[in-house]
Each structure stands twice: as C-alpha cells, then as structure tokens.
Amino acid sequence: MVLTGRAAALAAIGAVVVAAAAPSWAGVLGVTAVVLALALVDVALAGSPRALRLSRDGDRTARLGTTATVRLSVRNDGRRRVRGPLRDAWPPSAGAVADRVTVDLPAGERRLIETQLRPTRRGDRPADRVTVRSLGPLGLAGRQGSHAVPWTVRVLPPFQARRHLPSRLARLREIDGRSAVRVRGQGTEFDSLREYVRGDDVRSIDWRATARHGGVVVRTWRPERDRHVLVVLDTGRMSAGRVGDEPRLDAAIDTALLLGALAARAGDRVDLLAFDRQVRADVARLDATDVLRRMVGALAVLEPELLETDYRRLTAEILTRARQHALVVIVTGLDSSAVELGLLPVIERLTRRHTVLVASVADPRLAELATARGDSDAVYAAAAAEHDRLARTQVAELLSRRGVHVVDQPPADLPPAVADAYLELKASGRL
Questions:
Q1: Nearest C-alpha neighbor of 176 from the set 111, 226, 105, 243
Q2: How many domains in the chain?
Q3: Mean pLDDT of the chain
Q4: What is the pLDDT confidence band of residue 235, given thresholds at 50, 70 and 90?
Q5: For a tag site, which of 154, 285, 325, 426 has the least CB within 10 Å?
Q6: pLDDT tens digit sequence for 102-157
Q7: Which residues face 132 on adjacent strands?
Q8: Which segments constitute the DUF58 domain (predicted)?
Q9: Who wins on pLDDT, 277 or 225?
C-alpha cells in the first residue's frame, strides 16, 4: 500500500479539528484510524499494476545530437480501472524529455505512450523499469508495481566530418581519372600517353614513344584500386583526454569514419582495429557498400580505457591482419613519454612492410596559452604550453625520420587532414 499526500493532508486536518474541539490523544488516534481504514478500502478498489501488459517499439538507433522516439504500449488485462502516475525510467545520458505521465486505463483498454530521447553520449542506452502507481477512487492510497520492459537505443557517432566527404570525393575523381584531370608523375596503373609539360616526373617519360613521336612523351597513370587500408584507433589512456568538450577518441572516430568512407569509394579494402591492451573493436572484410554501417555500429559503443597502450602487442595485431603491403593509419597521441617508450621502438617493424601514417588530435588551447603574457601565471602557463608543443614537434620529427607520415591537427581539422594525406599518397602511387 502506498499512501498519497491527500491521505496525509486529510489525517492532519482531522487531527487539528479534533484537537481544537476536544483535545485528547484518543480523538487524534481515532481520526488517524478512520483515514487508514478509508485508505485500505481505496487500495482494495484500486486496479492492480501487475495486471498491466507492457511492450515497446520505436527507434533502435539514433545519431548523437538527434532525437529518438520510443513507444510504450500499456494494456490493462485486469478487472478494475488503473488510474495514476506512470514513470518510464531511462539513464540520464539517454536524455528522456518527459518520463512521467498520468494514465487512466479502464479494464481491457490500451494506451500508447511516446517518450522522446535526446541522448548526450554515444553507446547503448538501455531502458530501466516502468513503475506504475494505481490509485483508488478516493485518491488516498494505491498499489505500486514495476515492470521490466527491455529496450536499448544505440547512440551512433554524429560523423560531423561527413561534410568534408563531397570535396574529397571530387578530388578522388580527379586522381582516379574520371574527370578531365590525369595524375602527373609516378603512378601505379598505366592510363595513356601525352606530351611532356614542365613539372612532369621525368621517370614517367616513355622513351620508345618519344623516339617514335619525335617529341618527349610521358605516361599518365591511374592509381591502383583494391589497396588495403587498415585504420587503427588507440583506445588507451591518451584517448580519454578531453580537447574542448569531447574526448580525443571522438575525434579519432570521426577521422576513421571519413577515411573509411573515402577509401571504400576509392575501391580500396578497409579494415578497422581498436586496441589498447586487447582488441576492443575488430571490423574486417568490409564490403564497399557496407563500410559506414558496420564501422558506425562498432565504434558507437567504443569507450576509452584508462590503461597504457601496449604498442608491442598492437604491432603484432597489425602485422597479423596486414600481411601484404597496406596503408596503416594509427590514430593515437603524440605524448612524448608514451611514444618514445612505446611506439618508437616498434614502428620500424611496421614501416619495413607498410606505409604508416600516425594521426594525432592536437589541443588548440595550447596555441592560445603559448601567446599569453598578462601576468606571471599567464607567462608560466605560456612556457608550459610551449614546452608541450615543442615536445610534440620533436616526437613528430622522430617518427618522420623512421618513414612515418605524421598528421597533428585540432579535432575539427584532423579528419579532413588525414583524408588529404590519404589522397596525396594515392595520387603519388605510394600505397
């Protein structure tokens, strides 16, 4: 039995009236007993929450920043009316706009209740229990029961870098020879012959055709298709650091999605690996038409782990998955201690076989702090920021000396910068 505020108010008013007319404990207790008796009658006449049959339907997925609608069907299989509040509980990160409603459900009838969700985090957002309080006709007391009605909404990455895809696809069409432009210089797949112009790579000169033609003739190339692109996300402690309002991992996910979509449209084979000390996501043998869907589904539930990444095991995982030459894009941090002690000692094992690109999320706040000169605290912060920037630059140079292509950009600029680096490598025939 659950008493309502109305019962408490009625008992209090009755006690005050009795005490004012004839002050005695017996009178107060009598009023309380009467109210409790009425409450018991009310409970007996209330409909049973256990007689309700609940089910759900609606959206199973939603992109972060959009709204999902989940419908709750409530049917009263009991013999009495169920009237009272209903709470459809969700975790706070699901962003339920209104999770409490009042229902009035006669016996044998059904109601449909819609809940709007505006999630604030990626990942799976499971529904909690549905709690119904059925009040009696007097509204003094009622019955309460909870129902488990399973439902999960998977919140997908927003893929904000999608806006960069059309311009990169246009560049890809130029490189691929589907527009009027042809790749100049060293390529991978012979396309046609044309006269030499200043700026052409001399290695593309076709000497036999030149001898026949009487002028210098060069080959034009189309980039090879069906190359292997392995995107590796470091989910260790560095990915948990926040830049602005988001963890670095979110920018890494956006980068992986843009590169995956672009490489698939280029006809390349795309694989995805997320790793720290164990595999957190592994998406392989992606069909070109299914790349985004499977990558988004795998990355939606990915979270940073507060662990130091084991780069030796990561290298072994990469070499296991990419036995032939591939473009390996590792999205990780450029923290000097982690890279110098972890990645640098093993990176040459990768560069001997693969083209390696290391992408890192830079913090634009460092540039702002480095220019501050207002007071002693600002100068100290500027010195610390400049020290961090120099350390990142030195780490990038160490990687470059070992044949690694390095991209270090703020979160919004990292996905298009990595896409541009991929296109440049493809245009120059280095994949």
A1: 226
A2: 3
A3: 86
A4: very high
A5: 285
A6: 999 999 999 999 999 999 999 999 999 999 999 888 777 788 999 999 999 999 99
A7: 86, 145
A8: 193-370
A9: 277
Q: Do 59 and 145 belong together in one domain?
A: yes
Residue 191, pLDDT above cutoff 60: no
Looking at residue 213, its pLDDT comes to 73
Contacts of 254 (CB under 8 A, 6+ apart): 157, 158, 159, 160, 161, 411, 414, 415
- Domain residues for the domain of 14 are 1-156
The pair of structure tokens assigned to 52 is: 């309700």
Domain membership flag for residue 294: yes
**HEC-encoded secondary structure of the chain:** CEECHHHHHHHHHHHHHHHHHCCCHHHHHHHHHHHHHHHHHHHHHCCCHHHEEEEEEECCEEECCCCEEEEEEEEECCCCCEEEEEEECCCHHHCECCCEEEEEECCCCEEEEEEEECCCCCEEEECCCEEEEEECCCCCEEEEEEECCCCEEEEECCCHHHHHHHHHHHHHHHHCCCCCCCECCCCCEEEEEEECCCCCCHHHECHHHHHHHCCCEEEEEECCCCCEEEEEEECCHHHHCEECCEEHHHHHHHHHHHHHHHHHHCCCEEEEEEECCCEEEEECCCCHHHHHHHHHHHHHCCCCCCCCCCHHHHHHHHHHHCCCCCEEEEECCCCHHHHHHHHHHHHHHHHCCCEEEEEEECCHHHHHHHCCCCCHHHHHHHHHHHHHHHHHHHHHHHHHHCCCEEEEECCCCHHHHHHHHHHHHHHCCCC
Same domain assignment for residues 374 and 420: yes
Amino acid at 394: Q
Tokens of 57: 């339907």
State which of 181, 202, 222 marks the end of a domain: 222
pLDDT tens digits along 43-75:
788 889 999 999 999 999 999 999 999 999 999
Contact 309, 234 (CB under 8 A): yes
Whole-prediction pTM? 0.80
pLDDT-derived band of residue 218, with 50, 70 and 90 as boundaries? confident
Cα separation of 98 and 100, whole Å?
6
| Residues β-bridged to residue 219 | 193
